């Protein structure tokens, strides 16, 4: 269906070499986009590229480094000719109580999750503006909405992402650029494996509290990526959409 057809579009998915990013990248590739995945781990990317088909490619980039974000976007534009879609997904988690967070923990997490996403958005803007439009998707979290005892740094970054999304959406709407945020629930990725190892009883909590009664999978994010990257969402901007098996819908 043309509404969701991404043929001829070029997408960047930061952190697309695994987890949620790979699930979204697979959706975009299936809808016809040429996908550039980024990350730090080239070996992991090799496996991801096998799932994405012959037109996808990998660009190594550390998102907390602003220059690296701009260089990555330029490399994608040089290789693929244009940049139409950005999924600013790369991120890390930290599960320390606020009193235990070091300055390095705090700055390191915000540098990656919040500043990294912003730098990538800044870097794609001139390409999208020149082309007369584009689609940006940021990745928040349930902790964009709720508090948690272990969520001071992570929640601050993800609350910030949601507000950043709204500001960019209002600033760039007249350029034909839509900016929306996806709020994943509990998705079974490497990040979640780390969380389960650190938080006692997390698996039971997720299964009990998620109305869908299961963890999400990276592939559960494919559909929302295609919607927010395609013409189907041309009048949708500045929103934050949970993809969480109903987690955020309950009190
Ligand atoms: P993963 O750990 O599986 O993936 C994270 C990705 O981000 C990796 O591909 C990693 O690449 C990349 N990345 C991390 N740090 C950097 C960095 N400094 N520079 C460049 N790339 C980096 O986790 P998820 O797929 O779960 O997480 C993806 C996003 O979804 C994150 O923003 C996370 O906060 C968010 N999220 C996840 C939830 C979950 O339950 N899993 C819930 C809500 C939100 P590499 O391995 O090469 O370093």
UniProtKB/TrEMBL annotation:
UniProt cross-references to Pfam families, sorted A to Z: adh_short_C2
Domain of life of the source: Bacteria
Family affiliation: Belongs to the short-chain dehydrogenases/reductases (SDR) family.
GO MF assignments: oxidoreductase activity, acting on the CH-OH group of donors, NAD or NADP as acceptor
Protein name: 2-deoxy-D-gluconate 3-dehydrogenase
Organism from which the protein derives: Enterovirga rhinocerotis
């Amino acid at each position: 269906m043309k509404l969701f057809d991404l043929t001829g579009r070029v997408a960047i998915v930061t952190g697309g070499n695994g987890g949620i990013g790979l699930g979204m990248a697979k959706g975009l590739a299936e809808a016809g986009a040429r996908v550039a995945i980024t990350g730090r781990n080239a070996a992991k990317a090799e496996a991801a590229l096998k799932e994405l088909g012959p037109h996808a490619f990998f660009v190594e980039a550390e998102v907390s480094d602003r220059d690296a974000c701009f260089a990555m976007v330029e490399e994608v534009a040089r290789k693929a000719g244009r940049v139409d879609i950005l999924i600013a997904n790369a991120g890390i988690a930290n599960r320390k109580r606020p009193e235990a967070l070091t300055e390095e923990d705090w700055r390191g997490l915000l540098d990656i999750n919040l500043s990294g996403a912003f730098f990538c958005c800044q870097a794609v803007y001139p390409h999208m503006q020149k082309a007369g439009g584009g689609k940006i998707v940021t990745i928040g979290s349930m902790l964009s909405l709720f508090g948690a005892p272990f969520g001071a740094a992570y929640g601050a970054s993800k609350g910030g992402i949601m507000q950043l999304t709204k500001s960019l959406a209002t600033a760039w709407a007249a350029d034909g650029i839509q900016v929306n945020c996806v709020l994943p629930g509990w998705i079974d990725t490497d990040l979640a494996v780390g969380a389960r190892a650190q938080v006692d009883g997390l698996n039971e909590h997720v299964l009990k509290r998620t109305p869908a009664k299961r963890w999400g999978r990276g592939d559960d994010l494919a559909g929302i990526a295609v919607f927010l990257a395609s013409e189907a969402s041309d009048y949708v901007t500045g929103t934050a959409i949970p993809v969480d098996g109903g987690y955020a819908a309950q009190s």
